[in-house]
Automatic annotation (TrEMBL):
The lineage of its organism: Bacteria, Pseudomonadati, Bacteroidota, Flavobacteriia, Flavobacteriales. Residues 174-203 are annotated as: Disordered. PANTHER family: CHAPERONE PROTEIN SKP (PTHR35089:SF1). Belongs to the Skp family. It comes from Flavobacterium rhizophilum. It holds the Pfam family OmpH. This is OmpH family outer membrane protein. SMART domains: OmpH. The keyword Signal applies. Gene3D superfamilies: Skp domain. Keywords: Coiled coil, Signal. InterPro entries: Chaperone_Skp (IPR005632), Skp_dom_sf (IPR024930). Residues 52-79 form a coiled coil.
Length: 203
């Protein structure tokens, strides 16, 4: 945390110095609400949906095995009075081993989900980071900050936020659409809205 504050403080200092030197240099900045980006990303929603479906399939398989164990245990309890102590002891050992196997099976299923979907999630997040970096270069930004769980913005004007632009673009890319076309449409809509406002004000 201290390191983040020091870095942010240094950036603010540099910004202030550059701005004060004749007023010629100003940074173009923006920020992205990373939590919203993650929550509303179509790619991550699709991944989570597939992960949940796979998880439910594995859960049903595990529940079936648990039900078999419960039925066998109830049957053994009914037979115990007629079977004797040695049989009961052997059955108790059997059920203990089966429970251990089911526990290992559950752990294995969790690892399977993690190994299958974690790399895909990492890949999607990395693509987002790469897109934001390219977006910053194309649009002449000096800094694009991120907010969320790992926030590194203490304050920002609402006008600096570009979360919706980034979100629309990465979702368009996921759907196979052209992200730049989405941005152009948004700009045209904004310009139309500004023109309408000016016309209304003129009246």
């Amino acid at each position: 945390m201290k390191k983040s504050l020091l870095i942010l403080g240094l950036a603010v200092t540099l910004f202030s110095c550059n701005k004060n030197e004749g007023g010629a240099t100003e940074f173009k900045t923006a920020y992205v609400n990373t939590q919203k980006l993650m929550d509303d990303s179509e790619a991550l929603k699709d991944l989570n949906s597939r992960s949940n479906v796979k998880g439910e399939e594995l859960k049903r398989e595990l529940n079936d095995e648990y039900q078999k164990l419960k039925l066998d245990y109830a049957k053994a309890q009914d037979e115990a009075p007629r079977r004797g102590a040695q049989w009961v002891q052997a059955k108790a050992q059997e059920f203990q081993e089966r429970e251990q196997k089911l526990s290992m099976m559950q752990d294995g299923m969790m690892r399977q989900l993690q190994e299958e979907f974690a790399p895909q999630r990492d890949s999607i997040v990395e693509e987002m980071r790469s897109y934001i970096k390219d977006y910053g270069k194309k649009n002449g930004y000096d800094y694009i900050y991120g907010t969320g769980d790992a926030a590194n913005v203490l304050y920002a004007k609402d006008s600096y936020e570009i979360t919706e632009e980034i979100l629309k673009a990465v979702n368009a890319k996921f759907k196979g659409e052209n992200p730049d076309a989405v941005k152009t449409e948004d700009k045209a809509t904004e310009e139309k809205a500004e023109t309408t406002e000016k016309e209304e004000a003129a009246k």
